[in-house]
DNA sequence: GAGATACTTAAGTTTTCACTTGACAATCAG
DNA sequence: CTGATTGTCAAGTGAAAACTTAAGTATCTC
């Protein structure tokens, strides 16, 4: 039977919910970096950082590749698309709702 | 001394990471609704739904108010701003990075 | 006032998360 | 070859998250 798999958007938002992982993404925005380089400014063990990187990779936000003993991480530029689309869609609907509310208030004021 | 409080953006992304909570937000996009109405299509107890609503309210994504015995929930339209700003900022940086990569490849091709 | 309705609250359970420890594997430098 | 570097893996811990159950409190309806 079909296995239950988490939708991408769940994983993306979950990944973004952790400040350490957002810090990693911000660091990688300056360009690719190795695992231990990512770990330097983070106050935790290498193993913990690797786990964060796994979450980020599974969510499609970064990609990694190993050359020799060094694993290099870089941003996956399309990784944010689904999340941004969901958010901006909501926002435009919500703004429309606000407009309707404004209309109602204006009408009420005219009485 | 200053209390430790979770940054808004942490809470927003965390709130968005749960499919039930996104479903609630989508439902509320059609207009305000009471707690029990929100609970109807969700396969869980009322108490669980209330807890999700609390998370959403604390993250600034919705507001609620009680009139009589009914608590009505509605969208807080500005709640997504911080998240959208963070995401679009990253995206534009990432696209620039992609361009630079493109340039490098083009240069390499010219040899 | 007696029910029914619409939550609210507290406590307990199970699962998931973030992290550590410690042992291991691979690779590079002298 | 011998270390030192760079990362990997598995297991365990503690706390937070996502629920449930059950009892309680207003409020509305008759």
Give the key terms:
homodimer, alpha+beta, 3-stranded antiparallel sheet, 5 helices, 13% strand, DNA-binding
Descriptive notes:
The structure is a homodimer of 111-residue chains. By secondary structure, the first copy, chain A, is of the alpha+beta class. Chain A contains 5 helices and 3 strands; from the N terminus they run H-H-E-H-H-E-E-H. Chain A has a 3-stranded antiparallel sheet. In chain A, strand 2 (62-67) and strand 3 form a beta hairpin. The longest helix of chain A is centred in the C-terminal third of the chain and has 30 residues, at 81-110. Chain A is elongated and about 75 Å long. Chain A starts with 7 loop residues before the first helix and ends with a helix. In chain A, 22% of the residues are buried. The interface between A and B is medium-sized, with 29 and 29 residues. The structure holds a DNA duplex (30 and 30 nucleotides).
């Amino acid at each position: 039977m079909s296995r239950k798999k988490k939708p991408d958007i769940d994983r993306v938002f979950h990944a973004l919910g952790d400040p350490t992982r957002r810090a990693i993404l911000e660091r990688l925005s300056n360009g690719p970096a190795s695992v231990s380089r990512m770990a330097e400014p983070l106050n935790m063990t290498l193993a913990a950082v690797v786990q964060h990187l796994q979450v980020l990779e599974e969510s499609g936000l970064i990609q990694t590749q190993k050359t020799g003993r060094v694993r290099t991480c870089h941003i996956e530029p399309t990784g944010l698309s689904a999340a941004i689309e969901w958010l901006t869609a909501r926002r435009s609907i919500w703004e429309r709702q606000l407009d309707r509310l404004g209309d109602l208030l204006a009408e009420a004021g005219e009485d």
